[in-house]
Every structure is written in structure tokens, then in C-alpha cells.
Design goal:
single chain, 210 residues, alpha/beta, Rossmann fold, 11 helices, 52% helix, globular
């Protein structure tokens, strides 16, 4: 039996998921309604798969994903995003953070079952609507004005430009140094840069079009 932790702040969604997964090979071992609660339950319950909503109070889904990937778990947690919508920036970052699956809430429920089955067997699965979009984004040059930065990424690049170290940035943002490293890796991937030095040198170029 594959253990599932559901992180979604809508009780109706959690109830629907419980009904969908009943009498399957998947068992919901816990639920969480906020980002912080999701992180606590991951630590407490040790699920096989985290089914994670992007829009939650007290730490959204992307924040939760970043913090999980910045952790030191011996066995990486498998994460499936279940969301009503996802923008291009979040889609690219989620893929760079090795999310195993993304399912849109307006999709056929069979998609979620198919996704979970793929993920539990070590394969990735993405909603068909997102697969082609991800391919198009991958073919689009990421440098200069081609990439849209999130407010957090904009802030992070500004800190790098001023010469702050990861520890100092982490203190200012109230996160761990490992989380900053994860943020930076995602920014490098998005902008097509290979080092912190290149990011600092080209910071004005990247921020100019934002």
C-alpha cells in the first residue's frame, strides 16, 4: 500500500480525494491545510507521496516543495502537485526541483490515478495540457527578457548583485541556507546562467525587463 499525504486547504477537495482513492492501492495517511502543517506531517508520517496543492495559506505549495528539496532526507519524497492552475515560472521551477507529477484539478479524475500509479513505480507523469507547454518553454531562450521572474526571484537576484552570501540572504528572508541554494539553482536553470558570478554580472540585464 502506497502512503499518501494530502496537503490542500479545501475540505471538499480532501473529501473527494478520499472517495477517489478508496479501495485502491493508495492510502491517505494524513491531511494538512497549510504549508507549515504539510511540512510537519511529512516529518511525522513519512508518506511515500505528497499530494500538494499550490495555493495554501502559511507557505504555498512551491515554498513547501523548495523546503522539501532543500532537506537532507535519505529517501527523497515523491511530490505530485494538484492545482487549479500553474504559471510558466512555477512550471519551470517545479520541473527543476524534480517534482514527479502535476495534475490539474479540472482534469479527468482518472488522470490523478494514472499519475499516482506512474509515480509510485518511479516514473514521472504530467497533465497532458502541461506537457506541450513545458516543451515549448524548454525551447524558448531563457536569457534576458525571455524569462519571467517571480517577486522572490527578483529579490534574490538583487541580493546576489549586492554581494550578499547565502547565509546573509537566508537571514534576511527568514529561511534556511539550504533553501537559498535551492532558489539559486532554480534561478540558474531559468535564466540559463552557470554560476553565481555570471548571475551577479548580468543582474541588471535580467532585472531590466521585469
Amino acid at each position: 500500500m502506497t502512503k499518501i499525504l494530502v496537503a490542500d486547504d479545501h475540505p471538499m477537495i480532501r473529501t473527494a480525494l478520499e472517495a477517489l482513492l478508496r479501495d485502491t492501492e493508495f492510502a491517505i495517511v494524513g491531511t494538512a491545510g497549510t504549508g507549515e502543517a504539510a511540512l510537519r506531517e511529512v516529518e511525522r508520517l513519512g508518506p511515500d507521496i505528497l499530494l500538494l496543492d499550490l495555493q495554501m495559506p502559511d507557505g504555498n505549495g512551491m515554498d513547501v516543495l523548495r523546503r522539501i528539496r532543500a532537506g537532507k532526507a535519505k529517501t527523497p519524497l515523491k511530490v505530485v502537485l494538484l492545482t487549479a492552475a500553474i504559471d510558466d515560472s512555477a512550471l519551470l521551477e517545479a520541473k527543476s526541483l524534480k517534482v514527479q507529477g502535476i495534475v490539474l484539478k479540472n482534469s479527468d479524475p482518472a488522470y490523478l490515478l494514472d499519475c499516482l500509479d506512474h509515480v509510485r513505480h518511479g516514473r514521472a507523469w504530467f497533465d497532458p495540457e502541461l506537457t506541450e507547454r513545458a516543451k515549448q518553454l524548454a525551447r524558448t531562450p531563457a536569457a534576458g527578457g525571455g524569462a519571467t521572474l517571480t517577486p522572490r526571484e527578483h529579490q534574490l537576484i538583487g541580493f546576489v548583485r549586492t554581494g550578499l552570501r547565502n547565509r546573509e540572504i537566508a537571514e534576511r528572508l527568514g529561511v534556511t541556507e539550504g533553501t537559498i541554494k535551492t532558489y539559486l539553482h532554480a534561478v540558474f536553470e531559468k535564466l540559463g546562467v552557470s554560476s553565481r558570478t555570471e548571475l551577479a554580472i548580468r543582474a541588471e540585464e535580467f532585472l531590466a525587463g521585469q
